[in-house]
Amino acid sequence: MTVTAAIDGAAGSATWADALLLSFAQAGYVQAEPAILQPAEPFLDLSGEDIRKSLYLTADASGEELCLRPDLTIPVARDYLASGRAGQPAGFSYLGPVFRYRDGQPSQFLQAGIESFGRQDRAAADAEMLALALEATSAFGLSDVEIRTGDVALFTALIDALELYPVWKRRLIKDFNRKVSLTQDIEQLTLATAPGRNEYEGVLAALAGSDRKAALALVTDLMSIAGTTNVGGRTVAEIADRFLEQSTLKSGALPRDALATIKRFLAIAGDPDDAVAQLRALAEDTKLNLTAAIDQLESRVGFMAARGIDTSLTRFSTAFGRGLDYYTGFEFELHGKGNGIEPLVAGGRYDGLMTQLGSAAPIPAVGFSVWIEALTQLRKPVGNAS
């Protein structure tokens, strides 16, 4: 049963939201109801300290920082890991309030969605998420939506294949995930660092050519001698990473051929099938091994077509990212045509989240969130979509 059919057939007292959950349940996704009060640390670690200003924070008697849940993905994932099914395939749906400060908008709003854990058939699971997301928008009479997709795994594969310094890899991938202007960033990385000396010049020279382990050991020793464990709120590891980054950037510039390759990669956009062809041409021309990541994209596009999605109307971009560190592969957003930049539905693959939340082994994960408020504003009567 589609979402539209579920809503059309719902009893008079049931809301469209109940019908949405019913449709998700009939697709095999069990309703989850995680606690509203959550540990703040996972949200801060995975979304960055910038999210702090948007959270509603408190603390328990032990001093642990807590927050009203700002979304439902992490709470659902935490409950799954705490259950007896952790590591096994399992799918969950949800509908409930989330709490996040939004300037000029209500801070409490409804969020629905699906999370799928443990499936090894990643390309098929990705395509299923997009198909279910499109059904959700169709339920509101929105059959003509803009589909934007990307794949952070492709960018990660490119950066790995270029064999850059580790600090440059971390910086570029972090900037990609945070939607920083990569073109501007990589231009800066081709330039030598600013001339002149500073009070840490000796430390930077000592770290030249070192790896992260050596940098951490040196900074730990120096801070031990100084009798301190942090400076300005930064931990030893954070200080070591910063020194290592400065040392590496002083030792040389990002190679021009790497710059040209990254720019060419980020310019690929349009029809997914055309994008696959351009990516294979790039890999061939540069002799970089991107085969596995490109194959995964091509397989996903095939599964999308098999689910009835017109892939020629899907916009794929290698530069597309959702601004969250925990995405590891497929990412997508559904937008109303000509209706601003905020998505109606958004999601993607986040295979690294479970280990970041404490799982001993990686667990595949993919899902999406439905922004009820945005869909309700655009809602058209079912059967009268245009």
Concise synopsis of the structure shown:
By secondary structure, the protein is an alpha+beta fold. It has helices at 3-8, 16-26, 41-47, 73-82, 122-138, 152-161, 166-177, 182-189, 201-207, 212-226, 236-251, 256-266, 272-286, 291-306, 353-356, 372-378, and strands spanning 30-31, 37-39, 57-59, 65-68, 90-99, 108-117, 145-151, 269-270, 314-317, 330-336, 345-349, 365-371.
CATH structural class of the largest domain: Alpha Beta
Shape, please?
globular
What low-confidence regions span 5 or more consecutive residues with pLDDT below 50?
A: 3-14, 191-197, 382-386
- The CATH architecture of the largest domain would be 2-Layer Sandwich
Helix content: 40-55%
By DSSP (H or I, 4+ residues per run), the number of helices equals: 16
What does this structure look like?
This protein has 16 helices and 12 strands. The protein is of the alpha+beta class and 386 residues long. It has 2 domains: 272 residues, BirA Bifunctional Protein, domain 2; 61 residues, no CATH class. The strands form 2 sheets. A 9-stranded mixed sheet has the order 1-5-6-12-11-10-7-9-8, with helices on both faces. Strands 2-4-3 form a 3-stranded antiparallel sheet, covered by helices on one side. Strand 3 and strand 4 form a beta hairpin. The chain is globular and about 65 Å long. The N terminus and C terminus are likely disordered.
